[in-house]
Structure formats: C-alpha cells, structure tokens
Design goal:
- This protein is mostly beta strands.
- The protein has one domain (3-75).
- The chain has one helix and four strands; from the N terminus they run βαβββ.
- It has one helix at 24-31; strands at 3-17, 37-47, 51-62, 66-75.
- The protein has a four-stranded antiparallel β-sheet with strand order 1-2-3-4, with no helix packed on it.
- β2 (37-47) and β3 (51-62) form a beta hairpin.
- The longest helix has 8 residues, at 24-31.
Length: 77
C-alpha cells in the first residue's frame, strides 16, 4: 500500500535499539552501519484515492541515514 505522511508524527516511541531489532543485519547490509532504532508513532496518512486517515506507523531510523522502511501497522479511525 502506498501512502504519504501528512503533517507531523506524534507520540513517537522507541520500540527497539541496535541488536534488539529483529532485522538489524538486513538493515546494516542494505543501508549501512549506524545506530539503528525501531520507532512508532501516530500520524495522519494519505492513502490511495486521496483519503486521509489516522494511523499507527512504524519505521527504522539511524543518525545520518534518516527514516527507512516506513509502514502502517493499523488504522486508528
């Protein structure tokens, strides 16, 4: 599903850091070394068909590399 974040991500929480991330080896191989974190937050997303919904989103992030592999976990409305 293709989506776009509309506005700011709120209530950001760290889920896991470094070796506690299940896919850490894939992240390092695909994007490079870094202090990887798995994060989650609440955001308004625009899904296909120009519909805007509130959703819980999860992503990986490393300093200097930015957000990677963003996905919608569930819709909240």
């Amino acid at each position: 599903m293709h989506f776009e974040i509309v506005g700011k991500i709120e209530n950001v929480e760290t889920v896991a850091v470094g070796g506690h991330i299940r896919d850490i080896m894939r992240l390092r191989r695909q994007f490079g070394l870094g202090r990887w974190r798995k994060l989650k937050g609440i955001a308004l997303v625009r899904v296909s068909g120009d519909k805007t919904r509130k959703a819980e989103v999860h992503w990986y992030e490393a300093h200097g590399l930015g957000r990677k592999k963003m996905k919608i976990k569930r819709f909240l409305d």
